[in-house]
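Lab manual, section 2.4: Encoding a predicted structure.

Procedure: take the sequence of the chain (272 residues), apply the prediction step described in section 2.3, and record the output as structure tokens. A sample record is shown.
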Amino acid sequence: MDIIQAIVYGIVQGLTEFLPISSSGHLFLVPALLGWEDAGSGFTAVIQLGTLAAVLIFFWGDLTRILSGWTAGLARREKRDTPEYRIGWSVVWGTIPIIIAGLALRDLIDNQFRSPWVVASTLIIFGLLLGLAEKVGRRSQSLEAIGPKEGLIVGLWQCLALIPGSSRSGSTITGALFLGIDRESAARYSFLLSIPSVLLSGLYKLYDAREQLMDEGLWATVTATAVSFVVGWAAIAFLMKWLQTRSTSVFVWYRIALGLVIFGLLFAGVLR
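Recorded output:
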């Protein structure tokens, strides 16, 4: 992998990790369309650490507040009746499902799931689910309403992100909207919930695919990760501002259109 390819991968990762349009799907499709070799799930997981750094810095205030409230509740019972304590446990419970599913479905994720047919199908299906959540969700609850029960439910939705084309942010925002959470809070919780799962998957893949990553070139991986951090920061800022006054419908239509284009390319023999 040369530096130009690494920069392209970093831009795609940063743009699509947080917008509900699927980073893994785009990272699979871009090389297929450009005639490059598939970078692999290991490379994809590792460069997510760049976008993870963007989340940590962007939401540093929220993170320190929640972590402080959670640890205070662990230490003292009278400190447990706070939104921060409940949100802290919601992130813990919301992370458990994807750890179990990720380990159980590892071979499927690395092989059978990495297909343009799968990507096109999930782009459309989960796009329609996001549109349905927009229509039926009450959007009457804020971030403070999320507790362990809601975290577990959204965590189960997050498991769908293991399928390329579904989108981690898309699936978790969809789940939160179905629970009646407002758009901005759903996106904010989606980012918070992504931290432990992206960190764990990135570190695991960094070790598991270390030989492949060295073959690709260490500088290529570092470059893609750094670019994904910068672009990811901008994408977070854009999405949070967008959802303050607008719906997710533009992302729904984008997913459906992209899925149909991919199906067209497959039937035309352009994609294999």
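Check your result against the sample. The mean pLDDT is 88.
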